User: Which sequence fits this backbone?
């Protein structure tokens, strides 16, 4: 049993864990509501049943009281007849001188609707007088009858018998009539002296049956009449009981006191109400099958069940709606969190539902926002850091370049080529000045081009005019700004990888122009070039870091700096064919002074 | 997925509850709940020309009919024990769509044969005699009744033979009583003569039988013959003891007067009630079973015993 309970509890817990909050809410609400409805319904049912029972009892008691009054009136009428016979006829008549038959006949005629016979017997059982028949059967022995013996045994009382067949007189009209006998002891006067006798008034059983018959009782109930020993006097199905086809709980009822009792008889629960009929000791018994609803009315029960079920339906429907109202915001929040977990960025966290849930949604939204800002900050910081690193790398002058340049200056000075050495030193100075640019990252395009020009001057002197160079700018590029030191690394790349390996006269061109909102700078050489697939890999992140022999600043670093500063749409594009040369195109935003200033501030440490 | 499952569960619960509401609201409107059990028409076909001997049984039948919702039609024959007439009446009642029949068969074998040929026969309850084809038989144990009556005859020590009278030679129930009595008497070594008489013919034949010399006792095995023999005995002032079957009001008076020495009896009210109760139940398609009716042998001096009063005389 305990194991079974544990297994059941385990299953419920498992089921609970697998349920959604809405199902848990709706089912638990519904279960509680159903329990409440059942409790309420059961309570109402019991109350109703009690009320019905009380009403049935009250009704039965009312009916019994009415029947009792009628029966009492009937019996008192018989007793009055008996008294009249005794006190007005027997007591005033001396049997020696006058017969009582005539007077008794008159009295009988007055009450013939309820009487069968009136008879007086002497102590030995011989008939003294009778009406309406005056001769007894030869086979009749009244002194052996119970009513006769009771009258002589208890002289002070009137005795009512149970129903029996009238056996004293031979009545050709109705030979076997059911009667109830009222007998009493009387004093007969004969020749002036008194002797004991018995007065018998036989009343028609039909009269008693008439009083008790046709009494309506609820729920198929009925009443019956028993004597003090439980012997049935009247029962609506009396003949069935006599024939042994039906049983009644009359012997038990004889022991009941007046009032209502509940008994179980032949598997049926029933309310039994008892009322004692005055003087006789008889008991009127009202029987009503237990007025529990099932017995009361199927329709009423079904109506009650229908109301209960409809209430349950309504409650279940409302519970489902209410639980959906409560749980839907939770489900939406859960869905939003799942989407966030999946990495979706544009997730809207809806603030709906009850106060706590709205607070929770707000907190989660705030937390997500904070996380996003933190992540943005981290990304920005990382980009800044990377940019700074690249810019630091970029700002470093290759010592070889500086040494070679200064060595060239020394050599030219020693050889008396002062004008060229001055030009070289001047270009180097300008190169450094522009490279520094007071620490600015964004400089005018003109300065950048000038920086390229000076760099080319120095390299042309060093390489003894092995190549020609041309720097040009479109007319619409005036006033534009660009990221510092973006052209020089490309020129360095063109010289070291393009021109130096070429046997032809080299040509390096730098051309700046504007395309819409973009600034395009093409750095081209007619050097050895490379295969397009190799050119395509030069800017790849997966390619190892480029280290040039020039200024030491790689082409990829320029590309990364541009992208880190201006974003993905910008950067380098390399066009190259073997033996035809290479063009590296820089795409930058066309910045005016104001925009340049903004980028300057963003890039400030 | 889970949301869909929840919706399905909720829908199922709502549909079940809604369905239950509709069912409980519609149920009282159904004809089977609204109407009481339909009235059952029952025809009671006796084997006598008048039903006076069945007074108490009719009271029982009417009580059962009233309680169980049946309509009774009690039919007698133009001539007592006319099997052909009874068969014609029975066929007519079947044709008139009686829901069940209660028959006191005049000629059970012939009736059984006719019923076997009849199509669409309603439930039939037989009284007094077993009937092949009948769904139920309501009667005392006839052979035992005859035997018990014979025991009562043997209780008197008298010389002469015992005359067994039978007015319904075709009735197997009556024949069983005769057989039962004869068996007991013969076993006891009592001389027995058996005669068949007609209830419709003049009483001369019966008078001659009752006036036979050396007649020690007369036994009649059916109520009508018992009454006829008693009346004749009383009118002729005969002393031969008469034993009969059935206690009608007349028979009770003769018992009381000693004209009938003893009578085999049972509760006619109970027989009538059980027959109609069985017929109604069978007509409604229910099963029904009853035991043989208890019987007793009553003498004149016992007539007013309370138990006999209750059984023999209808209350009211």
Assistant:
């Amino acid at each position: 049993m305990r194991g079974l309970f544990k297994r059941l509890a385990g299953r419920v817990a498992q089921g609970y864990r697998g349920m959604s909050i809405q199902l848990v809410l709706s089912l638990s609400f519904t279960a509680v509501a159903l329990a409440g409805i059942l409790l309420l319904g059961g309570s109402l049912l019991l109350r109703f049943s009690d009320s019905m029972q009380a009403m049935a009892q009250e009704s039965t008691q009312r009916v019994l009281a009415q029947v009792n009054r009628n029966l009492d009136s009937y019996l008192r009428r018989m007793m009055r007849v008996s008294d009249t016979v005794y006190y007005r006829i027997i007591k005033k008549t001396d049997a020696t001188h006058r017969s009582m038959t005539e007077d008794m006949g008159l009295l009988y005629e007055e009450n013939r609707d309820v009487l069968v016979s009136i008879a007086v017997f002497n102590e030995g059982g011989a008939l003294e007088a009778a009406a309406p028949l005056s001769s007894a059967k030869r086979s009749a022995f009244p002194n052996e009858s119970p009513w006769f013996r009771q009258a002589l045994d208890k002289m002070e009382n009137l005795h009512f018998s149970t129903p029996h067949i009238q056996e004293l007189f031979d009545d050709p009209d109705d030979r076997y009539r059911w009667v109830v006998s009222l007998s009493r002891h009387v004093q007969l006067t004969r020749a002036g002296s008194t002797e004991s006798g018995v007065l018998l008034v036989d009343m028609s059983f039909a009269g008693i049956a008439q009083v008790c018959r046709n009494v309506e009782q609820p729920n198929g109930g009925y009443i019956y009449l028993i004597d003090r020993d439980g012997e049935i006097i009247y029962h609506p199905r009396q003949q069935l009981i006599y024939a042994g086809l039906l049983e009644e709980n009359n012997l038990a009822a004889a022991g009941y006191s007046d009032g209502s009792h509940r008994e179980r008889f032949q598997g049926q629960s029933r309310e039994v109400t008892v009322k004692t009929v005055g003087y006789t000791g008889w008991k009127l018994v009202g029987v009503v099958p237990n007025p529990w609803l099932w017995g009361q009315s199927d329709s009423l029960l079904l109506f009650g069940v229908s109301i209960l079920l409809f209430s349950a339906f309504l409650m279940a429907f409302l519970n489902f709606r209410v639980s959906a109202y409560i749980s839907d915001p939770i489900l939406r929040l859960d869905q939003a969190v799942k989407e966030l977990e999946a990495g979706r960025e544009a997730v809207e966290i809806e603030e709906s539902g009850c106060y706590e849930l709205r607070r929770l949604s707000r907190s989660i939204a705030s937390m997500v926002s904070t996380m996003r800002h933190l992540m943005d900050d981290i990304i920005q910081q990382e980009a800044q850091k990377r940019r700074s690193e690249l810019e630091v790398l970029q700002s470093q002058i290759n010592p070889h370049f500086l040494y070679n340049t200064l060595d060239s200056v020394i050599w030219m000075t020693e050889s008396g080529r002062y004008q060229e050495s001055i030009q070289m030193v001047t270009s180097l100075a300008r190169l450094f000045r522009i490279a520094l640019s007071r620490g600015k990252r964004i400089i005018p395009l003109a300065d950048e081009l000038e920086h390229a020009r000076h760099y080319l001057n120095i390299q042309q002197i060093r390489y003894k005019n092995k190549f020609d160079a041309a720097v040009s700018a479109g007319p619409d590029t005036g006033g534009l700004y660009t990221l510092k030191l973006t052209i020089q690394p490309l020129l360095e790349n063109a010289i070291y990888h393009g021109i130096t390996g070429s046997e032809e006269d080299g040509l390096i061109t730098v051309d700046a122009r504007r395309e819409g909102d973009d600034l395009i700078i093409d750095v081209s050489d007619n050097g050895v070039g490379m295969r397009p697939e190799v050119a395509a890999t030069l800017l790849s992140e997966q390619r190892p870091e480029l280290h040039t022999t020039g200024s030491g600043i790689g082409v990829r670093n320029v590309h990364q700096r541009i992208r880190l500063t201006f974003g993905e749409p910008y950067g380098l594009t390399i066009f190259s064919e073997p033996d035809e040369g290479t063009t590296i195109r820089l795409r930058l935003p066309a910045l005016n002074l104001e925009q340049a200033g903004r980028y300057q501030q963003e890039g400030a440490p | 997925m889970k949301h869909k499952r929840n919706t399905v569960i909720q829908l199922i619960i709502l549909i079940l509850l809604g369905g239950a509401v509709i069912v409980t609201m519609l149920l009282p409107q159904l004809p089977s709940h609204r109407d009481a059990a339909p009235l059952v028409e029952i025809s009671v076909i006796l084997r006598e020309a008048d039903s006076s001997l069945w007074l108490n049984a009719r009271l029982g039948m009417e009580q059962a009919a009233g309680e169980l919702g049946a309509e009774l039609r009690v039919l007698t024959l133009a001539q007592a024990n006319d099997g052909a007439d009874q068969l014609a009446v029975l066929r007519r009642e079947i044709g008139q769509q009686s829901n069940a029949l209660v028959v006191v068969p005049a000629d059970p074998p012939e009736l059984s044969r006719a019923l076997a040929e009849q199509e669409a026969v309603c439930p039939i309850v037989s009284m007094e005699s077993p009937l092949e084809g009948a769904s139920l038989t309501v009667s005392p144990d006839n052979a035992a009744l005859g035997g018990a009556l014979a025991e009562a005859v043997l209780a008197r020590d008298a010389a002469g033979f015992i005359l067994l009278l039978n007015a319904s030679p075709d009735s197997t129930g009556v024949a069983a009583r005769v057989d039962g009595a004869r068996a007991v008497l013969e076993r006891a070594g009592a001389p027995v003569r058996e005669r068949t008489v007609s209830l419709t013919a003049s009483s001369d034949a019966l008078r001659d039988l009752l006036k036979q010399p050396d007649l020690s006792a007369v036994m009649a095995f059916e109520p009508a013959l018992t009454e006829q023999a008693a009346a004749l005995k009383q009118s002729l002032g005969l002393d031969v003891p008469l034993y009969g079957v059935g206690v009608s009001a007349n028979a009770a008076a003769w018992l009381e007067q000693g004209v009938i020495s003893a009578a085999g009896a049972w509760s006619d009210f109970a027989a009538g009630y059980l027959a109609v109760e069985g017929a109604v139940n069978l007509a409604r398609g229910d099963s029904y079973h009853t035991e043989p009716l208890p019987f007793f042998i009553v003498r004149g001096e016992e007539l007013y015993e309370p138990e006999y009063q209750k059984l023999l005389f209808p209350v009211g």
Q: What stands out?
A: The mean pLDDT of chain B is 89. The interface with chain A takes residues 2-3, 5-6, 9-10, 13-14, 17-18, 20-21, 24-25, 27-28, 33, 59-60, 63, 249, 252-253, 256-257, 267, 269-270, 273-274, 294, 300, 304, 306, 309-311, 313-316 of chain B (CB under 8 Å). Residues 2-26 of chain B form the longest helix (25 residues). The longest strand of chain B covers residues 40-45.
